[in-house]
Amino acid sequence: MYKNEEGVGQGIKESGVPREELFITSKVWNSDQGYEETLAAFESSLQKLEIDYLDLYLIHWPVPSKGKYKETWKALEKLYKDGKVRAIGVSNFKEHHLDDLIKDAEIKPMVNQVEFHPHFAQKELRAYCREHGIQLEAWSPLKQGELLDNPALIQIAEKYGKSTAQVIIRWDLQNEVVSIPKSKKEHRIITGRYGSH
Ligand SMILES: NC(=O)c1ccc[n+]([C@@H]2O[C@H](COP(=O)([O-])OP(=O)(O)OC[C@H]3O[C@@H](n4cnc5c(N)ncnc54)[C@H](OP(=O)(O)O)[C@@H]3O)[C@@H](O)[C@H]2O)c1
Asked: Is the pTM of this model over 0.90?
């Protein structure tokens, strides 16, 4: 859906970084849900990325109106059993979607990637996932940059001599949430420092 797999594939090649040092995730988009469709979408992702396995593959949204997330999950289970992906999971699934999926699943989702940040702490979902051994992963952990101007967070950052973004990411980690902050700025990516510039 992001139309970035070819670019990422090219980036991986040009970087010269060994494949095993990278953790690569992709997701099956809503219009590709269904057993055969998902298997085909997965192969297409591998081709575009020019790699032969993924580290994590997720169902992007449950889309209950389509009624296909269970067949889609069956395809993910097959890909996992065939060794084509090292972990499988879902994204944007609420507790009732997970209950319904797990009821008929052979393998429980290993990850649930959801919106998570200090303005949306997802307490109940987090407790549910912990109870079921599902790793919560935070999308838009900086609320797309909006939280970086938050006075309370700025105050905490000043107190500890860190950037606001570092405080947010630390909060994710202390809550045992995997965080995937994004930046297009080379210096932020290279240094791993999420400063104010
Ligand atoms: N599963 C889903 O449905 C779903 C939905 C939304 C997002 N996601 C995933 O979540 C990941 C991250 O989410 P996101 O990109 O929406 O939001 P985000 O990581 O919360 O925020 C990214 C924004 O914050 C800015 N930013 C980063 N560090 C900064 C800093 N130190 N100071 C000021 N601005 C800073 C970035 O600007 P620059 O680029 O200019 O640095 C960018 O505009 C993405 O990779 C996306 O794939 C998943």
From this structure: yes
31 lines ligand 1 (CB under 6 A): no
Active-site residue flag, 35: no
* Distance from C-alpha of 101 to C-alpha of 141, rounded to nearest angstrom: 26
Q: Is the CB of 142 under 6 A from ligand 1?
A: yes
Tell how far the Cα of 181 is from the centroid of ligand 1, in angstroms: 5
Structural domain including 69 reads 5-109
185 in contact with ligand 1, CB cutoff 6 A: yes
Report if residue 99 sits inside a domain. yes
The structural domain count of the chain equals 1
Residue 196 has pLDDT above 70, yes or no: no
Across the range 139-149, mean pLDDT stands at 97
Q: pLDDT tens-digit profile of 167-192?
A: 999 999 999 999 999 998 887 776 65
